[in-house]
Amino acid sequence: MATLKDISVELGLSVATVSRALNGFPEVGARTRTRVQEAAARLGYRPNRSAQRLATGRSGVVGMIVKLRADMSADQTFFDVITSLTAELAARDLDLVLSVDQGDDPVAPYKRMLERDLLDGFVLNAPVPNDPRPGFLMSRDVPFVMHGQAHDAPDYAFFGIDNAAVSADAVELLTTLGHRRIALINGEARFAFAAEREAGFRAAMAAGAGAVPDSAVADGPPTENTGYTLALSWLSGRTGPRPTAILCATTPVAAGVLRAARDLGLSVPGDLSVMAHDDALPNIRPAHFNPALTVTHAPLREACAPLAQMLVDHLNGAPPARLQTVIRAGLIVRASTGPVPKGEDIPWQIP
Amino acid sequence: MATLKDISVELGLSVATVSRALNGFPEVGARTRTRVQEAAARLGYRPNRSAQRLATGRSGVVGMIVKLRADMSADQTFFDVITSLTAELAARDLDLVLSVDQGDDPVAPYKRMLERDLLDGFVLNAPVPNDPRPGFLMSRDVPFVMHGQAHDAPDYAFFGIDNAAVSADAVELLTTLGHRRIALINGEARFAFAAEREAGFRAAMAAGAGAVPDSAVADGPPTENTGYTLALSWLSGRTGPRPTAILCATTPVAAGVLRAARDLGLSVPGDLSVMAHDDALPNIRPAHFNPALTVTHAPLREACAPLAQMLVDHLNGAPPARLQTVIRAGLIVRASTGPVPKGEDIPWQIP
DNA sequence: CTGAAAGCGCTTACAG
DNA sequence: CTGAAAGCGCTTACAG
Q1: Which of A100, A212, A309, B311 could form a disulfide linkage to B83, CB 3.0–4.6 angstroms apart?
Q2: Which residues form the HTH lacI-type domain (chains A, B) (predicted)?
Q3: Is the dihedral of CA B264, B265, B269, B272 positive or negative?
Q4: Residue B114: exposure state from Cβ atoms within 10 A (0-12, 13-18, ≥19)
Q5: CA-closest candidate to residue B166, choices B204, B197, B126, B209
Q6: B108 and chain A: CB distance < 8 Å anywhere?
Q7: Could you give the CA distance from residue A150 to residue B56 in angstroms, rounded to a whole number?
Q8: Does residue A70 surpass a pLDDT of 50?
Q9: Which residue has the least CA–C1' distance to nucleotide C9?
Q10: Within the 19-48 window of chain A, which residues sit less than 8 Å (CB to CB) from chain B?
Q11: Which of B327, B329, B230 is nearest to B279 (CA)?
Q12: Is the pLDDT of residue A316 over 90?
């Protein structure tokens, strides 16, 4: 394995200059930099991470703790995020060490990893309302970045989508089409994003379609089965007036709703409009649903590069309160949404 | 953070001696070792991994590549193994870096990780028949250990259970109870362990109960749904004579079989005996099934300590062909198996 | 049984 | 713009 020394000998430069050239220090001459870069490529130079880490005092390792849920439903989104996050961190010379935890104490696994004393920072996933992890890590001065947002005006680094707008955009599309009885199959209530979506949903509905009864909001694991079961119960009409549109937390949930409609002989979008939020998981193509699914669209994996970069910036001393990004999901109108059925543009009745 | 130097100053010893004492070198005097260990504990000494790694030339990082399947069914066993493996490797000062791959080429992701040139070795999971990964890694002299076994007389390190015996033990129990028409819901055919289980099943059946028609062997994802669907079709009797016993690849599959029996009004074990192989996943308690499930039993997570140790030994120069262990699963007889129903002890007919 | 010393491959003040 | 040198915290022949 070629070292800085090899390059320096090859070019008659000092190791220091070679190091500076490769690390993009501005004071290096353009010609020198080019020569160094070429020699590095020619010799197949790769920095020795352990040496870099020893010299800089960083471990180059960041951690992420995955909560295993009691119901054992391995989250499909998990793999997608891990894939991208690992790659994005690797591109920035950081290794990601995963640790799976099954305990009840949300900060205990972080304490445990910190004790081993070899982590530069954390990526926090699956925030819950009033998540205690940011407070704990900040009290110990441990850098981290959160995927999502657990508090209203956080003083920590995070990247997420505007979940209230996800609901509002969907509601606005549907109310413009005349819908008033819109139901929501939300993500699991214990997660912060779900709380934001529900709040956004209720606010947008109140503004455009009328108040929403509790019976028109439900949640469950983000599966086809959840969608099927809830839609079947709502659409059968046994539980009161039927919704004319259903908003789904994920595309698999929407697949279940579509199946329920089919089983009940309801046409989509003739009798029922269906929308979902689309995390753009691989192997799930809402464009190929039948009918093609109207969605709000925000690929989960696109969060990974910003998250990795924020963490690097944070490690390099950037103030975390500057490392905050909220992006707005896109809206893709396809064939699963249409005008409200005639005579059905009647708001929910609050009991 | 305390260093070796701190300890050496504290005790008036050399850094070298402190290092030797802490690393268990035999030549250190017993009293000296004790003093050093006490001082290390008192000062909260933790070795600096980067320094160790730089000095030893090892990265201290091993990789594991997780294949993401097209059907997106995140394997429940995955989390269990990752949890334990991470912990066991950490206890041996190794970090585990996961990489998720979705491509078709089984060795490409290993090549890619190798190019980054910072891995000491790999843990290989989910072996398939004639798995190309061992050959590739051996050709590059990359240490690895396989969870399971992909070849008949491997020349590489691996740890696994005797899958043929898993089937044979189950078949023997059932034939002793008089069963002759035993059906198998196997793990997915693309995995090596499933091929071993099927071969073991057919051999044991041929020896004790008669040959098995292809229609009595099926496979699918290791889910409740797989068990329910297959059992329903077999037990309805539409596809030929009913099995009097069903062997399941996993406990969730058995849960599905039990539900199918219930739905059809069949009693277990009166009309049907049910067995499964139990990976001992958390939150699944075959002892609490109704009836309590008879199983072959081999906790997946118990493979992790041996795997971690084997990898360490391999990294320390042990010849991989010595690092091979096959353990035998246990057999736990509970209430889901019983004597064959009267007059039903008639072998399968091969069409 | 213990120590002095070299070395692992980087980074980064300090000088010029 | 470049270099000489110290230092990061270990490990490990080599000597005694």
Answers
A1: A100
A2: 2-56
A3: negative
A4: middle
A5: B197
A6: no
A7: 43
A8: no
A9: A51
A10: 46, 48
A11: B329
A12: no
Query: What's the pLDDT tens digit per position in A32-63?
Result: 999 999 999 999 999 998 899 999 988 888 99
Q: Is A130 on the interface with B (CB under 8 A)?
A: no
For B169: left if phi > 0, alpha if psi spans -120 to 50, otherwise beta; the answer is alpha
Q: Do B1 and A117 touch (CB under 8 A)?
A: yes
CB A300 within 8 A of CB A252: no
- The Cα–Cα gap between A33 and B155 comes to 47
What integer pLDDT is reported at residue A69 of this predicted model? Answer: 61
Domain ranges of chain A: 4-47, 61-161+301-329, 163-299
CA distance A111 to A121: 12
CATH number assigned to the domain covering A61-161+301-329: 3.40.50.2300
How many Å is the maximal CA-CA distance in chain B? 85
- Identity of the amino acid at A262: R
pLDDT in tens, A13-33: 999 999 999 998 988 888 899
Cis peptide bond prior to B291, omega within 30° of 0: yes
As a residue count, chain A comes to 351
Is the CB of A102 less than 8 angstroms away from the CB of B116? Answer: no
Instruction: Provide Rg for chain A, Cα atoms.
Output: 25
pLDDT band at B75 (very low <50, low <70, confident <90, very high): low
* Nearest-10 crossing angle of helices A224-235, A251-263: 40
In 3D space, the residue among A143, A105, A100, A104 whose CA is nearest the CA of residue A121 turns out to be: A143
Dihedral pair phi/psi, residue B108, rounded to 5°: -55, -45
Report CA torsion sign: A138, A156, A66, B113: negative
As a rounded value in angstroms, the CA-to-C1' distance for B24 and C2 is 15
User: Is 3.40.50.2300 the CATH number for B61-161+301-328?
Assistant: yes
Judge contact between B273 and B338, C-beta under 8 A.
yes
Q: What is the DSSP letter of B150?
A: -
Interface test with A, best of B3, B45, B49, B80 (most A CBs within 10 A): B49
- The answer to whether the Cβ–Cβ distance between A79 and B66 falls below 8 Å is yes
Rounded, the Å distance between the CA of B331 and C1' of D7 is: 60
Q: Are the C-beta atoms of residues A53 and B48 closer than 8 Å to each other?
A: no
């493979």: which residue's tokens? B303
* Distance between first and last Cα of chain A: 74
Contact A62, A95 (CB under 8 A): yes
Evaluate whether A61-161+301-329 and A163-299 have a shared fold.
yes
CA–CA separation, B42 and B6 (whole Å): 11
User: If 0-12 CB within 10 Å is exposed, 13-18 middle and 19+ buried, where does residue A318 land?
Assistant: middle
CA proximity to A185, closest of A229, A219, A236, A148? A219
Residue B27 to residue B29: CA distance in whole angstroms? 6
- Nucleotides on strand D with an atom closer than 7 A to protein CB? 1-5, 7-13
Q: Which two tokens stand for residue B293?
A: 């499930």
Average pLDDT over residues B74-81: 71
B163-299, CATH topology level: Rossmann fold (3.40.50)
* Number of helical (H) and strand (E) elements in chain B, helices listed first: 12, 12
Nearest to B294, CA basis, from B257, B331, B256: B331
| Cα B214 → chain centroid | 27
Q: Cis (ω within 30 of 0) for the bond into A282?
A: no
The mean of the pLDDT values for chain B is 91
Nearest by CB to A68, which of B1, B79, B100? B79
Q: Is B74 on the interface with A (CB under 8 A)?
A: yes
* Both structure tokens of B314: 């391999």
Is 3.40.50.1010 the CATH classification of the domain at A4-47?
Answer: no
Check residue B115 and report its DSSP letter.
Answer: H
Q: Name the residue with the least CA to C1' distance from nucleotide D8.
A: A55
